[in-house]
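Chapter review: from sequence to fold.
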Amino acid sequence: MKNLNYGVIGNCRSAALVSEKGSLDWMCLPQFDSSSAFAKLIDNEKGGSFEIKPEKYIRSVQYYKKNTNILHTRFVCEDGIFELVDFMPRYITENKDYYAPPDLIRYFKHIKGKPTFRILYNPKLDYARNHTENKFAKTDVIKSYTTSGTYDSLYLYTSFDCKSILDQDIICLYKHEFCLVTYNQKLLKQTHDRIYLNLQRTKTYWLNWSEKTKVYSMYSEEMGRSALVLKLLSYQKTGAVLAALTTSVPETIGEVRNWDYRFCWIRDGSMVVKILTQLGHHNVARRYLDFIMDIIPEKKEKIQIMYGINGEKKLSEYELEHLAGYEGSKPVRVGNAAYKQKQNDIYGILLDLIHQQFGLFENSLEHTEDLYTIVRSIVKVVEENWRKPDRGIWEIRGKSLHFTFSKVMCWVAFDRAVKISKLLNSDYYVNKWTPYRDAVKEDIMKNAWSEKKQAFTQHYGSDELDASVLLMETYGFIEAKDEKYISTVLTIQQELEHDGLMYRYKNQDDFGTPKSAFTICSFWLINSLYKIGRKKEAQDKFDILLSYSNHLGLFSEDIDFKTKRMLGNFPQAYSHLAIIETAINFSSDNTEPESLINQLNL
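The token string follows.
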């Protein structure tokens, strides 16, 4: 049985997954949503990998350089000790630009003895759809390229002998060496000094970024790692935020809930940016709002639920039938047909973020008029659609329904629009939108409450429960002390919690009954229990849930109820933003946040 025991490295242009034994099993170049160069993650035989195989292996341990996204894998062998230091270069240049090339560097750090190993370098370009040829014309460069189909190529620059790599000869390490995997042919000779300088500059960048992260009184380490993960999911070029880095890691082994998450969902992205802003990272919000303004250039433009990371609006979904899938779980999908869906909750979540930005930067927010135009355009859409059914937060591919969470987020849209208008002294819109806000609330209170369940339910006219309803308090729709909310929390816990983990919902959807826990829902329950006063129970559950992470503190989308193994796409933005939000709530009664540099005495 596999588990997602991977470390993630990246540079806000692309990213890669490295197994706990140092195998590069997932990387797409030149950017996050490009075709894969290494995809052993989703096909053990055909996908391609870059592995290090010690001859006299004893054990290995993997860890991050503290407060960075630089990954170390230490190999202890009978004949010596060495570390594999993996990173993707990212730093700020003298011109104040970001240097983030489509490169991955593997720095072999000699520590002791003369350890021996073989390098298995086996890229499979373009999702392994066609044959990839490897050749070298120079002693320090291997070129990989497709021999048919769509042309693609990759370069490996190295201080090792290229023939020894391709022949998988035994290599003896007695000094520091390097491998550089890159999408682009390099113009300058790649030397040890140049590689080492890249490492030091990248380390400095991440340390400086982490220093700006506010850390509260509890769970500072978990918050810091989660913030670094969320940063890796942000795309520097446009400001888009990815839901996850992978495609088709299944929610349940052997089933078909396998999706491509390398896109920007308005809901997920807005939630991530709001959390990172709370931690002091305002630039990510500025870039994300620029992304929003770029994809909604006209007043009549309707917002999709998701976009490509470069603003693409058509995300056609197709299957890679030649790939076996993660542990044989087919299909492997590229693209995501959910982009066509109607989900009314996205408007409130986006306006909640915009309201946060107006509140923080009331007098200096860039593009105020552009943003307020977007606010008015969004509210107009909500005015026209809030009474209509939709597909809901979970992207049900069957029948549209009046989902309670969607209705609550329509209320949030009107509520935040009113509050933004008050900040801008726009009485006309305050007076216009307040009645809509009140009407939506009245509608929810009348139609979403079940006397039988004594809870707000998944959708109007139903007794089914849904974990998303727990967010009613988080977004200010209802107070935590309200008896109806308390009853809802306890009823949802009773019916949707199983062995300490949460179902999103239990009723059948278009793919049957869900069989794994959706990680963020367990965090939602913990937050809700904490808010209604069951603080000890909430913290105990939080500690247990954190123990289900992988060896580096990383989370995917889902957790298997029985085995507690992680499933679903990885690493998942939803899961990591929920860790931060929960830690902030637990710290709310304690000391004020302080910078990471002061807390950790770096």
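Two observations follow directly from the output. The mean pLDDT is 93. DSSP finds 16 helices and 30 strands in the chain.
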